[in-house]
Design a protein that fits this description.
Layout lengths: L5 E2 L6 E2 L1 E9 L18 E7 L6 E3 L5 H5 L10 H18 L6 E5 L7 H5 L4 E5 L3 H9 L4 E2 L5 H10 L5 E5 L8 H11 L5 E7 L1 H6 L12 E2 L2 H10 L2 E9 L5 E8 L9 H12 L5 H5 L1 H21 L4 E4 L3 H9 L10 E2 L17 E2 L2 H6 L3 E4 L5 H9 L8 E4 L5 E3 L1
Parallel strand pairs: 6-7, 6-9, 7-8, 9-10, 14-15, 14-17, 15-16, 17-18
Antiparallel strand pairs: 1-2, 3-4, 4-5, 5-11, 10-13, 12-13, 18-19
Helix pairs in contact: 5-6
């Protein structure tokens, strides 16, 4: 029970039921420079709650989005599989909804242009909306029109007046990052063109729970959605979710399809109704389902630490691969520092030469992995496991190294 009353960011009901408490943690993308190593680092509670009325799983807001996203270290283009996912999405939208040279496409949280570049190649008029100026600059250099703004109802009105209303309005892995959820969805309603389509992708709460993906909980993710809850969020703002796809990305995501409630040309699909039924059968409208999650998280921590302790006692060298947000949740919750991992590597040059927040593990160029010849490689972005395993398999000096995947349970892969 909390000492102060916190209101659900969607329905306004007082929230008091714990989903999982991951202790205190720093912001996951605030990578530390060598000059900052001896400075005080801010830590915030990483305590997720579930609303007993609408079943939205959420974190309290401790840091304003401007402090998190105005200068950001995540660049989508460094994940090859994610760029390919974006290309396939572009092809699907053109085929299914007739997106072509006469169409307008707006992407919210457009990052470095990893997705819109595929529409630009087809001659489609696009606009990216990206709050991080350093990331938007990369998109602009690629020739992708971008504005540096946070999205909400006011920004939606401005964009509608300046750019026009889009036929396709999309956002991948942004809905979870929004503290003012109602204003954000209201903005999409305002901006969407008549007869237009909204698509949003985000990790699926059901997958998170079933596959123990607690490390996807971090301060940059304010909310965690089931299809049942997100359907109600959009419905309240005049948007009907008429279809949904279950995707393998990020360990299991949803792609939702929305349209104006007044638009009768797109009936609600069978798979949307089926997913609502699946979530109900899975207990996502019962508090006791959520209460069971915390213990399996604690057991994962115990198992990972047991493996690492045994490996270090046996004289094994362990390094990490990647420095993603989810990795920093895992490292801080499990208190894994350089006593276990000598260093980690990352393809993103904006992270190289820095240190992981909280745990202060050096982040190096991937070439250092080849030189180190480790016994074990701990894969922190486990959602990219197949891509990473294929990359490492092509390196002769790593042929004897074994990879460790921590989620959903500790697994050693030769």
């Amino acid at each position: 029970m909390m000492d102060h009353v916190v209101r659900c960011r969607f329905c306004g009901h007082a929230i008091r039921h714990t989903f999982v408490d991951l202790g205190m943690s720093p912001l996951c993308q605030t990578h530390i420079t060598s000059e900052q190593l001896n400075h005080m680092e801010p830590f915030y509670p990483l305590h997720a709650y579930v609303c007993e009325r609408c079943f939205l799983v959420q974190l309290e807001e401790f840091v304003a989005p401007g402090e998190i996203f105005s200068e950001y270290a995540y660049f989508s283009s460094y994940a090859d599989s994610w760029v390919e996912h974006a290309r396939q999405y572009c092809e699907l939208m053109c085929e299914r909804f007739g997106v072509d040279r006469s169409s307008r496409v707006v992407e919210i949280a457009s990052n470095d242009g990893y997705l819109l570049q595929h529409f630009v190649a087809k001659g489609v008029q696009v606009l990216g909306v990206e709050p991080a100026a350093n990331v938007a600059e990369v998109a602009l250099k690629k020739g992708i029109p971008s504005v540096v703004k946070f999205f909400g109802s006011q920004t939606a009105r401005e964009l509608a007046a300046e750019f026009g209303k889009p036929d396709l309005l999309l956002g991948n892995n942004v809905l979870a990052h929004v503290p003012d959820l109602n204003d954000f969805v209201a903005g999409m309603k305002i901006l969407l063109g008549e007869g237009g389509v909204i698509t949003m992708e985000f990790p699926h709460l059901l997958e998170l729970m079933q596959h123990n993906q607690f490390d996807t909980i971090y301060h940059e993710h304010f909310s965690y959605f089931s299809f049942t809850t997100v359907t109600e969020v959009f419905r309240r703002h005049g948007v009907t979710l008429f279809d949904v796809e279950r995707l393998p990305t990020h360990g299991g995501s949803l792609r939702i399809y929305g349209r104006h409630a007044e638009d009768g040309s797109k009936p609600v699909s069978a798979r949307a109704r089926e997913l609502l039924g699946l979530e109900e059968r899975s207990g996502l409208q019962k508090l006791e389902t959520y209460a069971a999650f915390a213990e399996q998280v604690r057991e994962t921590k115990r198992a990972l630490l047991e493996f690492l302790i045994d490996a270090k006692r046996a004289g094994k060298r362990i390094v990490g691969y990647g420095a993603p947000g989810k990795g920093n949740t895992l490292l801080n919750y499990c208190a894994i520092g350089t006593d276990f991992l000598d260093f980690t590597v990352d393809r993103n040059p904006h992270k190289q030469g820095k240190y992981t927040p909280g745990t202060h593990i050096p982040i190096l160029h991937p070439d250092e992995l080849i030189k180190a010849r480790p016994d074990y490689v701990l894969i922190l972005p486990w959602n990219l496991k197949d891509e990473i395993l294929a990359t490492l398999a092509r390196i002769p000096s790593l042929k004897d190294a074994q990879c460790v995947v921590p989620i959903p349970r500790v697994e050693v892969v030769s």
